[in-house]
């Protein structure tokens, strides 16, 4: 008897062969060999179950028990898009609809001397050396079936290249929209970001889904941060209750570079974000900030890992969660400090508020330290809104609901304040306020 | 204004208020005194509506309304104000933002238009002068890192802004040096009128040098065991509470 679970896997493998047939000569390219190997890995690993340590609290059964249309056509009209627009958005804005780059909707404003922005498929042709040097070098594809799956299907996504010493003035906003109004759809964007020496750039990935059907997003972004480069990275999720989102961001940092990730999940039925940073140079700095506000039966899982391979680097992590209704959350934060990485400073903090008696949160900090001269700290807290503070506010005439909202907003503010792209910050603040006040 | 009739309350299984009777009219200042653990702060909390206490009997009428029927925020909107013994620190919420929300929620309850930013600014400036409070304090997160004196001054500032009909000052003198005490008392006195009333809950007489009560009640074992005028407070200052305890205990024993 075949189960549905095998069906999605079988569907994907058949799809791969179909896609491969369309490649003609490109099927022999180095990158395609990588894809073929990744498919084998995916085939061997299969979708994870809760028996897998990394997936203990996140059950993907609901995701794999369905089938999806890949690269589905979308009938999104200009009107639909206007409704999905983010106000005051300025910069280079790239649209991906159901995983497919849409050039007509996109606008690139930065000069070509400052920034190369291309669909990945195009970049493979135009910048083969850069792509081959960095593509699939930083991911965890040997352990993660979803990453392997994404790699096998790495036909679309964005390639961002910032040449040495260029400071990209305007942010890059990648908008991934899945349109599930007609049927279940899936998208597997694959992004490669290469920021050369002393260059600076701000990049946001914003995910949005519409429609009542299920969506499956399996996104992978690789970021190479060269010496003294500075990358400010955002991942913003506002997807439906029927959305499954598995995303991995893998970062490789050279010496004296600064990388900051802000991961904000306002909505999404089932979300798993992996953030992996390897610090492979001295005096580098990695910042990881996150905020998640699940409600209803939403499930939001953040797995982060920072790997200190060289001395004198700092990492700083702050994740905050507000869990409403029957929602569930997971935080797993790994810090590795290798034997060479003396004088490492690594700080991790994860704070959660359960607003409902039925919400739950699983937190697991994991520190593995082989060096002896380091400063590392971690702390996780999960509690409720301060009872005395609520009464204090009520005693001043503020209703219990309004008092709760004020406290939640104050709790979230610390992470919101880290955001540096004004339009993204404003957009997120709006989403967060809406989510907090939602009954 | 306020009529408390045979009020009884407990926390968990512990009975704390065992039948309080008290009548307060507009324009009056009542001091509630008593030894530690007598139920003074419980009475203040029950009047403000703290949910930790369960009211097991009696009634409280506030201007014709059954106070015990109202949620804490409704009591505040009706004109009850509790100045906390330990004002709560609320990180991330500025005092001004907090008060704007409070004022407009109360106005909404009363069916009044919300105040705008300009009106707030004007009103805050005027009220700040009352309690000698600095603008910088109001921009900071509510009570966070405030000294004892700053917290209490902030309470009185909030009272000035909300203009309650009945203010309940719960051990407002605790943790204050004499200068801070004077400033806080001056603020309270300025806010006093023939339209409003004040309940001063205190262990010591010294606050009553500055806020002079019309009536003094002594609470012991959950009941008001003695009432008098301000002279009673002076007597307590001189003789302590032991003679009252002895009186009450003797009476209880004779009944038993």
Q: Average pLDDT of chain B, to the nearest integer?
A: 92
Which band does the percent of strand residues of chain B land in? 25-35%
Using DSSP, what is the number of strands of chain A? 21
- State the helical fraction of chain B: 40-55%
What distinguishing features does this structure have?
heterodimer, A: 439 residues, alpha/beta, 11-stranded mixed sheet, 10-stranded mixed sheet, 10 helices, 21 strands, globular, disordered N terminus, B: 256 residues, Rossmann fold, 6-stranded mixed sheet, 4-stranded antiparallel sheet, 9 helices
Structure description:
The complex is a heterodimer of chains A (439) and B (256). Chain A has helices at residues 4-21, 30-45, 61-64, 78-84, 120-126, 128-134, 145-152, 387-394, 400-416, 422-437, and strands at 69-70, 92-97, 100-107, 116-119, 158-162, 172-179, 185-187, 190-195, 200-210, 215-225, 230-238, 243-253, 258-267, 270-279, 285-292, 299-308, 314-323, 328-337, 345-354, 360-369, 375-383. With 439 residues, chain A is an alpha/beta fold. Chain A has one domain (4-381). In chain A, strands 1, 4, 5, 7, 8, 10, 12, 14, 16, 18 and 20 form an eleven-stranded mixed sheet that branches. A ten-stranded mixed sheet of chain A has the order 3-2-6-9-11-13-15-17-19-21, covered by helices on one side. The longest helix of chain A has 18 residues, at 4-21. The termini of chain A are far apart. The model of chain A is unreliable at 1-5 (pLDDT under 50). Chain B is built from nine helices and twelve strands. In chain B, the strands form three sheets. Chain B has a six-stranded mixed sheet with strand order 6-9-10-3-11-12, with helices on both faces. In chain B, strand 11 (215-220) and strand 12 form a beta hairpin. The longest helix of chain B has 15 residues, at 95-109. Chain B is globular and about 65 Å long. The two termini of chain B are 37 Å apart. The model of chain B has no long low-confidence stretch (mean pLDDT 92). At the A-B interface, helix 8 and helix 9 of A face helix 2, strand 7 and helix 3 of B.
